[in-house]
Amino acid sequence: MTAPSITALRARVVTLVASIALVLSSTTAQAVSLLRDPDIEHALQRMSSPVLYAAGLGDNIKILLVNDQSLNAFVVDHGHIFINSGMLMRMTTPEMLQAVIAHEAAHIANGHIARRMANLDSARTAAGLGLALALATAAASGRGDVAAALALGTQSSALRQFLAHTRAEESSADQSGIRYLAAAGIDPSGTLDVHRLFEGQELLSTSLQDPYMRTHPLSRDRLRAMEGFVAAYAGKAKPNPDLDYWYDRARGKTTAFLRPTKWTLQRYKESAAEDVRHMRLAVAYHRQQNAAKAVSHINQALEVRPNDPYYYELKGQILLENRQFQNAVTAYKKAADLAPSNALILGGLGRSLLTVNRPKEALTYLEAARARDFRDANVLRDLGSAYAQTGQHGMASLLAAERHALANRLDDAEIHARRAMARLPQGSNAYRRADDIARAAKRRKDKK
Questions:
Q1: Which residues of 19-114 form beta strands (DSSP E)?
Q2: CATH match of 3-232 with 3.30.2010.30
Q3: CA 199, CA 213: separation in Å to the nearest integer?
Q4: Phi-psi domain of 158 (left: phi exceeds 0; alpha: psi -120 through 50; beta: other)
Q5: Which residue from 52, 26, 30, 51 is spatially nearest to 164, judged by alpha carbons?
Q6: CA–CA separation, 114 and 173 (whole Å)
Q7: Which residues make beta-bridge pairs with 65?
Q8: Cα separation of the two ends of the chain
Q9: Which residue from 66, 65, 32, 34 is spatially nearest to 47, judged by alpha carbons?
Q10: What is the residue-averaged pLDDT of the chain?
């Protein structure tokens, strides 16, 4: 895509190697990316929170958006639910999206992932399960700082088997997901609306089915059973304008970045909230490289919500990508003041500070961003640049190694890791991080 479209949606590309790629391809293991945007992720968390609490999972699950137009949602560990951008854009009500989240949460809460983890050794024999599972392993061991070193290649057939749900698991997740929705006061009929998107696909060959059908097999018997579950919980929904707003905002921003700009300009009035309408127009004009109109509309959104950090973040992004660097710093600083714990906003502030030659100050924010979310490849790139500009070349090499490892380029990662080890104090935490990457690269070479 052109720079203002995917770059604008924070294509802070995080290549989760084939841990995600397998759901997109039945024959090859190819890397895909996450769409990292603080506004969208915040909206998804707001929408998922009542469902996750009803499932007994609390705030321990992060909802991440995958850069893929096909319909799918899936889990690969106990801490994340992945939703394809195509799935989000095809949903027409917040209840449909919440139904998808509830179903995937049920796979976690009901122990389906844990049972597959128990059989992980045989899957690893066929192929490593890639970074997404490596992240789970690192988190469980308390070694999140070395997770990037665990990014090993994946064979899609092995992981496809890992993600595929049995009929028993699907029935269990259906029942639990509908129960979570009812407990959260959400209309469970959204579950039926989601599955009607896939009606008739069971008659297609596997290669023609949406990925969701391949990992979540749907039968007529299962659909009839779901209709019974939904009927049993009917009438318990409660209106929730707040969740309606955040659903429209997440979907509106995603479509504004990924649909043709003409589509957005024709449909922005469908959003009920004035600020969301202006946000969608700001994105559309930004993609058309009309900075004046883009800034005007995001400023109008801020007039409606003057303390919204995510609108300030979008303003900073628009200004930064239009080379108005000092104004971008001001906007990002305001966003960070309003949301001081948001890793993506902190990373954006650090990036903008580098553009105005303030690398020491940038280091503070970039390290804070990395500590909260080590998966952001762009933060690693910017951190490496900041360390290089401040004369800390060993750390710059380490960050380059981690960035290459995160992208599953372990040969390149090893080169930078060994360069870092030659420059860092032996035995230091940074040295050990570089050593972990070098060892991981060597282990993969030895297996070839």
A1: 62-66, 73-74, 80-84
A2: no
A3: 10
A4: alpha
A5: 26
A6: 14
A7: 83
A8: 35
A9: 65
A10: 80
Domain boundaries, the chain: 3-232, 249-447
Q: Are strands 80-84 and 62-66 parallel, antiparallel or unpaired?
A: parallel
Q: Which amino acid is at 392?
A: Q
User: How big is the chain, counted in residues?
Assistant: 448
3 state DSSP class of 438: helix
- pTM of this structure: 0.81
- The encoded tokens of residue 155 equal 């064979």
Q: Are 306 and 328 in contact (CB under 8 A)?
A: no
pLDDT digits (tens, 9 = 90+) for 14-56: 333 333 333 333 223 344 578 899 999 999 999 999 999 999 9
CA distance 388 to 394: 8
Q: Which CATH class is domain 249-447?
A: mainly alpha
Q: Kindly give the pairing relationship between strand 80-84 and strand 73-74.
A: antiparallel
User: What are the start-end ranges of the E strands in 257-320?
Assistant: none
3-state class (DSSP) for residue 42 = helix
Residue recorded with tokens 């609108």? 311
Residue-level pLDDT at 68: 85
- List Cα–Cα distances, 40 to 91, 311, 366, 408, in angstroms: 15, 11, 21, 26
For 358, phi then psi, to 5°, come to: -125, 65
Residue 201 vs residues 174, 207, 213: alpha-carbon distances, Å: 19, 11, 7
Q: Angle at the Cα of 159 (from 16 to 442), degrees rounded to 5?
A: 60
Per DSSP, the residues of 93-138 read SHHHHHHHHHHHHHHHHTTHHHHHHHTHHHHHHH---HHHHHHHHH
Measure the CA–CA gap between 278 and 188, rounded to whole angstroms: 31
